[in-house]
């Protein structure tokens, strides 16, 4: 799929419209991403960080530039060896992150995990689970059956830590997508291109921090990239048998990906548009393309039927009326934030039939469009573009990590001191986007439709889709490898531009880049010195924290019953927060909160009055407690008077303990539940000491000077040989 000669009108229209749109959105996303770090908690919170993000991007550009200069001098054997080392390095860092940080199973992940565990016993999906969750969101059924098979395998192999198994499953799917993406880079650009893609991947924080997300955005990745790879290989196959195999694999990846996330269909649309453009211009070859498309459609139909029959084994309920219609997500996308919110969920859920849900959502869509108006609608689209595509960490949050052994590494990667790490995420993302934009600009000169154009069209379609759909920052994970492949292609494209100039021009560009990077690093270090080393921040180190709460379940405290919650910890703590159902009670009503050790000795106590009962959380501060080892503690809540008022504690009634050594007792009797609460240490101090700030700043300057020296020393120009 490649055209290099003069094209017809239809071809030119398709190329011009898509190129202008993707360039516009790329520039907009770059502009948003350079200004702010959405997940920042302290030093970069709500700050303009253009200087910092550009500095990180230039630094990474020098690093990749040095690597590229060395790459052009390596032979095939060396490239293969270094590629293998890089691959093992990526896997090693992923494993270390999972094992050291001990990620927890969270949010939708936990719901699927919980139902998969029940499926092992019940053999059918519970239609009433968590407010008809799997009836509302039928697209979660395929993922549920996969997790069920994984847990069943773990049960057969007598593996107890299924949380860890699921994290490694997410890592496996991420690396499978990485392998397919490496294959795409290799087929399209040769081994040098593929190696550079792997080098980009080793620097990409997303493929490490998002291994924990064994949910639709990560699980769909290998199917999307696999479908692209096999689509590329189909016309390259020399034998009919190979073509059939690749067609079958393409169909399988497409259907499995489509059953997880609807965005997979955008790839089919992109391929169809490009195929149509080529057929209209060439006026030949359409028969061959039609045969490919029809064969793939037949394979997809058969695979889809097989998947539905397999999933039907576990579904003994009719979700026609309970399932949310497509317009629900469009309606939600027009809401105040454009993201998920409980009010829109409850609005759609209130209608008893499917037809009424559709009518109600359409009515709400019309109402919101009328209220927004043209300018309001444009502002909402801008807001959604930022929400989905601005964040280089893709919505990474420290609250997603359950940490059993608090460490400084945890604080700087996942906790309240993660701002430097998030700056790196943002800088890497900005650098990648700039290279993608350079590739788009270069494509205007070549003016051809190839597989890089298909991937640009795929990214454009995904951007447009999330302008229409309900959006989230982590939805952009689905394009992480597509964007990365386009970035590598963009870098190589501009290498060829510099290769056509004499050595003086290339040398001047190198000196300018190295000098600018050093200057910006020094300015950034001076600019951020006070806020990093002098200003006091409040840091919260989480000891135990609930990431899942079933709001339909709670335990009660009144004059007839009390609650005791056990938990273990080896980490210092000075605050406990208990999730409650807010209540309006007389000012005379009060409750007692006590913290006890394993021997029932009272360590701290607090009286809970009416003003606190009107809040979502009972926050309780006391002097810091430092366990000498892993010790058991108790939280006890009792009524302080004989009134009939009841305090409701939000609780989890699932099969798994939310906390190490956790168990809730009502009147000293086990109830098979856990209170939803948090144990943490709150401390105040500077982000980093002066000594460490100077040391780290010096190391960055030295690394930058070393890379500059290696880059300038290479006077051989740019060798962009095809391989």
Question: Care to describe what's here?
Answer:
- The protein has 723 residues and is α+β, with helices and mostly antiparallel strands.
- It is built from 24 helices and 13 strands.
- Strand 5 and strand 6 (602-608) form a beta hairpin.
- Helix 1 packs antiparallel against helix 12.
- It is globular, with a radius of gyration of 28 Å.
- The protein starts with 8 loop residues before the first helix and ends in a 10-residue tail after the last helix.
What does the secondary structure layout of this molecule look like, with pairings?
Layout (H helix, E strand, L loop, with lengths): L8 H27 L14 H22 L4 H26 L5 H16 L10 H4 L4 H16 L5 H42 L2 H4 L6 H4 L1 H16 L3 H21 L4 H18 L3 H27 L13 H8 L8 H8 L4 H36 L18 H6 L5 H28 L4 H18 L11 H20 L3 H25 L1 H5 L3 E9 L8 E4 L5 E7 L3 E7 L11 E7 L4 E7 L1 H4 L3 E9 L5 E9 L7 E6 L10 E4 L2 E2 L3 E2 L1 E9 L4 H24 L10
Antiparallel strand pairs: 1-13, 2-9, 3-8, 3-10, 4-7, 4-13, 5-6, 5-8, 9-12, 10-11
């Amino acid at each position: 799929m490649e055209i290099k000669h003069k094209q017809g009108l239809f071809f030119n229209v398709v190329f011009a419209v898509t190129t202008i749109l993707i360039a516009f959105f790329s520039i907009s996303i770059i502009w948003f991403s350079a200004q702010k770090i959405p997940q920042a908690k302290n030093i970069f919170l709500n700050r303009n960080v253009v200087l910092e993000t550009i500095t990180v991007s230039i630094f990474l550009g020098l690093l990749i530039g040095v690597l590229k200069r060395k790459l052009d001098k390596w032979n095939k054997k060396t490239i293969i060896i270094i590629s293998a080392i890089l691959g093992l390095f990526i896997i090693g860092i992923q494993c270390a992150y999972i094992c050291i940080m001990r990620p927890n199973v969270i949010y939708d992940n936990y719901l699927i995990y919980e139902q998969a565990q029940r499926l092992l016993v019940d053999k059918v999906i519970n239609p009433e689970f968590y407010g008809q969750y799997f009836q509302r969101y039928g697209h979660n059924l395929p993922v549920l059956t996969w997790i069920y098979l994984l847990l069943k395998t773990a049960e057969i192999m007598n593996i107890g830590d299924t949380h860890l198994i699921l994290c490694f499953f997410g890592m496996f799917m991420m690396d499978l997508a990485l392998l397919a993406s490496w294959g795409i880079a290799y087929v399209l650009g040769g081994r040098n291109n593929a190696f550079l893609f792997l080098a980009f991947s080793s620097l990409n924080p997303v493929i490490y921090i998002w291994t924990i997300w064994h949910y639709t955005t990560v699980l769909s990745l290998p199917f999307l990239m696999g479908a692209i790879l096999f689509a590329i290989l189909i016309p390259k196959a020399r034998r009919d048998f190979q073509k059939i195999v690749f067609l079958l694999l393409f169909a399988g990846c497409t259907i499995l990906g489509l059953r997880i996330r609807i965005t997979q269909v955008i790839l089919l649309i992109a391929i169809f548009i490009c195929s149509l453009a080529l057929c209209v211009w060439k006026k030949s070859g359409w028969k061959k393309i039609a045969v490919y498309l029809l064969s793939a459609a037949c394979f997809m139909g058969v695979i889809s039927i097989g998947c539905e029959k397999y999933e039907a084994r576990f579904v003994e309920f009719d979700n026609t009326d309970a399932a949310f219609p497509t317009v629900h997500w469009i309606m939600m996308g027009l809401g105040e934030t454009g993201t998920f919110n409980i009010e829109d969920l409850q609005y759609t859920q209130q209608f008893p039939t499917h037809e009424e849900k559709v009518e109600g959502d359409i009515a709400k869509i019309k109402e919101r469009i009328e209220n927004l108006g043209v300018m309001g609608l444009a502002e909402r689209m801008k807001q959604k573009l930022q929400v989905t595509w601005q964040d280089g960490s893709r919505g990474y949050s420290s609250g997603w990590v359950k940490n059993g052994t608090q460490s400084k590494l945890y604080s700087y990667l996942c906790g309240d001191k993660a701002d430097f790490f998030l700056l790196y995420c943002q800088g890497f993302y900005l650098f990648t986007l700039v290279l993608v934009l350079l590739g788009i600009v270069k494509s205007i000169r070549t003016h051809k439709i190839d597989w890089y154009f298909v991937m640009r069209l795929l990214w454009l379609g995904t951007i447009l889709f999330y302008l229409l759909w309900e959006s989230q920052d982590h939805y952009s994970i689905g394009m992480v490898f597509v964007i990365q492949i386009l970035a590598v292609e963009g870098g190589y494209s501009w290498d060829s531009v510099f290769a056509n100039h004499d050595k003086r021009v290339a040398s001047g560009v190198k000196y300018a880049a190295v000098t600018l990077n050093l200057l910006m690093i020094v300015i950034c270090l001076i600019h951020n010195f006070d806020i990093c080393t002098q200003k006091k921040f409040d840091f919260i180190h989480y000891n135990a924290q609930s990431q899942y709460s079933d709001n339909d379940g709670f335990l009660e405290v009144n004059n007839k019953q009390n609650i005791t919650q056990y938990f273990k910890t080896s980490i210092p703590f000075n605050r406990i927060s208990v999730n409650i159902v807010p209540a309006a009670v007389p000012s005379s009503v009060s409750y007692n909160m006590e913290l006890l050790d394993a021997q029932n000795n009272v360590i701290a106590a607090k009286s809970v009055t009416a003003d606190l009962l009107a809040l979502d959380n009972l926050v309780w501060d006391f002097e810091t407690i430092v366990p000498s080892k892993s010790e058991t503690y108790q939280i006890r809540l009792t009524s302080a008077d004989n009134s009939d008022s009841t305090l409701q504690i939000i609780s989890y009634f699932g099969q798994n303990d939310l906390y190490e050594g956790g168990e809730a007792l009502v009147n000293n009797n086990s109830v098979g539940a856990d209170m939803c609460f948090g144990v943490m240490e709150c401390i105040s101090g500077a982000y980093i000491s002066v000594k460490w700030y100077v040391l780290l700043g010096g190391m960055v300057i030295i690394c930058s000077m070393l890379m500059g020296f290696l880059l300038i020393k290479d006077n051989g120009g740019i060798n962009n040989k095809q391989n």
